[in-house]
């Protein structure tokens, strides 16, 4: 703060010299890649396990796609509206479908190499959708749209579904606060037992 206050007392040439010096220092620091030790130190300083956001290091090549509100994905079919959550292998966004005019949930998976065995959601989803013989087929939600997005960090599987309500974990948390009735718990347990093998 002192440096900024001192700038107001300098003449125009001096201010320009100081500003150019600061720009040069910042540019020099930005041009040098971080060492592993520097990355670890930054990770330790700026990422807290209790923080709800994913670490910034997850936005490197081969990892998450950097998304901004207003981004258009799927050849302009979806406009990103808000962030819904994240996990170790994906981020989930609320998007506006320009085709239907409705809000949808979009899961953007971490990038993967061709040899990677992770990120098989597209294949698994299509396999489940195509197996209509099992009774679980009628109760499992499917993706309305599946596409690949090519971004600066690689190629990402994007899976679009209807917005859902609370997860089972959230429902349990909310229910426990007011004394959750046993009947909904039994219904969920029965559905899991009946339709779980389908998955």
UniProtKB/TrEMBL annotation:
The EC number(s) this enzyme carries: 2.7.11.1
GO cellular component: cytoplasm; nucleus
rRNA-binding recorded as keyword: no
Catalytic activity: L-seryl-[protein] + ATP = O-phospho-L-seryl-[protein] + ADP + H(+); L-threonyl-[protein] + ATP = O-phospho-L-threonyl-[protein] + ADP + H(+)
Gene3D superfamilies registered for this protein in UniProt: Phosphorylase Kinase, domain 1
Any GO BP annotation: regulation of mRNA processing
Keyword Chloroplast attached: no
UniProt keywords, alphabetically: ATP-binding, Kinase, Nucleotide-binding, Serine/threonine-protein kinase, Transferase
GO MF: ATP binding; protein serine/threonine kinase activity
Cross-referenced PANTHER family: PROTEIN KINASE DOMAIN-CONTAINING PROTEIN-RELATED
Protein name per Swiss-Prot or TrEMBL: non-specific serine/threonine protein kinase
Natural source organism: Colletotrichum cuscutae
């Amino acid at each position: 703060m002192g440096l900024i206050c001192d700038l107001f007392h300098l003449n125009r040439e001096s201010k320009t010299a100081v500003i150019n010096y600061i720009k040069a220092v910042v540019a020099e620091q930005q041009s040098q890649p971080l060492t592993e030790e520097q990355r670890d130190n930054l990770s330790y300083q700026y990422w807290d396990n209790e923080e709800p956001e994913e670490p910034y290091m997850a936005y490197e090549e081969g990892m998450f796609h950097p998304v901004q509100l207003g981004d258009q994905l799927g050849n302009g079919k979806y406009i990103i509206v808000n962030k819904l959550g994240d996990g170790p292998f994906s981020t989930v966004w609320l998007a506006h479908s320009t085709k239907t005019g409705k809000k949808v949930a979009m899961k953007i998976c971490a990038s993967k190499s061709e040899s990677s065995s992770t990120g098989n959601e597209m294949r698994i989803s299509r396999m489940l959708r195509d197996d209509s013989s099992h009774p679980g087929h009628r109760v499992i939600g499917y993706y309305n749209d599946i596409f690949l997005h090519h971004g600066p960090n690689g190629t990402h599987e994007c899976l679009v579904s209807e917005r859902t309500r609370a997860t089972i974990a959230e429902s349990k948390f909310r229910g426990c606060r007011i004394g959750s009735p046993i009947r909904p718990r039994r219904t969920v347990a029965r559905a899991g037992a009946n339709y779980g093998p389908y998955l």
